[in-house]
Amino acid sequence: MTKKKFSIKFVAFFSGCYSCFLLHHFFFVNVVVASCLIGLIGTFLPLKKVGNEKNIQAAIYAGSFAGMCSAGILTGPLEILALSILGASFFILTENILHGLGGKLGTIAFTSVTLVYLIKEIF
Fold first, then answer.
1. Integer Cα distance of 33 and 31 in angstroms
2. What is the residue-wise DSSP string for the chain?
3. How far apart are CA 12 and CA 117, in angstroms?
4. Could you tell me if 67 and 38 are in contact, meaning their C-beta atoms sit under 8 angstroms apart?
5. What pLDDT, on a 0 to 100 scale, did the predictor assign at position 29?
6. How far is Cα 103 from Cα 39, in angstroms, rounded to an integer?
């Protein structure tokens, strides 16, 4: 895992997660609509110069799935940061294991949110 690859996936996942979280919790947009909006906006971003455009867009969308969780789980920016680190890591680690995107993005989001929740409960 290279630093550049991780950084790109982290920024994409974080932006998707944080944007969806903000839309839902501060602007009272339905979580499904917020996630769809973030995914739609992510598809129009000019990302060809940054790296593999489809993987970056998928990381944004996976982040928006993770951002759909309740405010009881994500209570602050530090938790969103931890969630994004885990999500970007899982996204990179599963690139060669899970092919395609069907189910992969939701699985990454679910696993990341679950780990953040468990870590919060332990500490």
1. 5
2. --HHHHHHHHHHHHHHHHHHHHHHHTT---HHHHHHHHHHHHHTS--TTTS-HHHHHHHHHHHHHHTTS-TTT--SHHHHHHHHHHHHHHHHHTTTTS-SSTTHHHHHHHHHHHHHHHHHHH-
3. 21
4. yes
5. 96
6. 15
The per-residue pLDDT for range 64-118, each reduced to its tens digit, is: 999 999 888 888 888 999 999 999 999 999 988 877 767 899 999 999 999 999 9
Q: Is 103 left (phi over 0), alpha (psi -120 to 50) or beta?
A: left
Q: How far apart are CA 105 and CA 87, in angstroms?
A: 9
What is the rounded distance in angstroms from the CA atom of residue 20 to the CA atom of residue 68? Answer: 7
Token output for 73:
């789980």
pLDDT of 118 reads 94
Alpha-carbon radius of gyration of the chain:
13
Phi, psi of 29 (to 5 degrees): -85, 140
Helices 3-25, 77-93: inter-axial angle, 10-degree rounding:
130
